[in-house]
């Protein structure tokens, strides 16, 4: 009876790990999908603006480029941050107090 309980506990643990892995992948995939859609939308808006503002001046083009860069960089930062990448230089995570 104890062997059965241990066996079922091990199966339950494996099932839980499998479900957690599935949920993590699903969440990450949908998050990426939404972020990619946000980038696509921002790119389409800038292309539409370009098509309707062929005679814009230098400042306008530079401003629109900067706006697009900000959208993309914001999303890329979120992606890199959620992927567990290395902390940025100067991050407090690397600092340790000595006892």
UniProtKB/TrEMBL annotation:
Which keywords accompany this UniProt record? Answer: ATP-binding, Nucleotide-binding
GO molecular function annotations of the record: ATP binding; ATP-dependent protein folding chaperone
InterPro entries, per database record: HSP70_C_sf (IPR029048), Hsp_70_fam (IPR013126)
Q: Where is this region: Disordered?
A: 80-99
Q: Does the keyword Transport apply?
A: no
* Keyword set includes GTP-binding: no
Q: Tell me the Pfam families matching this sequence.
A: HSP70
What family classification does the UniProt entry report for this protein?
Belongs to the heat shock protein 70 family.
Q: What is this protein called?
A: Uncharacterized protein
Species of the source: Pundamilia nyererei
